[in-house]
Design a protein that fits this description.
The chain is mainly alpha-helical. Helix content is 62%, strand content 5%. Strands 1-2 form a two-stranded antiparallel ribbon.
Length: 131
């Protein structure tokens, strides 16, 4: 299996290059992105958008750091208001939870959890790992 994976990795760049040339020559199997077709297989060239990583581009990395610094500055400047809002949010969440439940509903939840624990069983299974 490892040998097959290694071989696939080795030939993939050549296969992609060939697929791109088939598309550029308008010689695809369906006039679109199917570069090879038989009764049992279609080989389709897919292009995925891949965003650059900031650590690989100095300008992106610099802008990312500036964004983080500005966010920290804003958080420091507004720390009292942020703390007040976080307290309000916590209070509202707790009130919302209470409003969404009744005493009877909490009783049902406890009964459900107990019954679920009682009915839980262990099922045997086999695990196979390929090396």
């Amino acid at each position: 299996m490892a040998a097959l994976s290694a071989k696939l990795e080795e030939i993939e760049p050549m296969a992609i290059e060939r697929a791109l040339s088939i598309i550029s020559e308008d010689a695809t199997a369906n006039g679109k992105r199917v570069v090879y077709r038989t009764d049992t297989v279609d080989i389709i060239l897919q292009l995925r958008s891949q965003k650059p990583k900031p650590q690989n581009h100095a300008d992106l990395e610099s802008l990312k750091e500036l964004i983080e610094l500005e966010a920290e500055k804003a958080q420091h400047q507004n720390q009292d208001e942020i703390a007040s809002m976080e307290r309000e949010i916590a209070l509202l969440r707790s009130r919302l939870l209470r409003l969404q439940q009744t005493d009877e509903g909490r009783t049902y939840q406890a009964e459900y959890a107990d019954l679920e624990r009682q009915l839980t069983t262990l099922e045997p299974l086999l695990s196979v790992r390929l090396k």
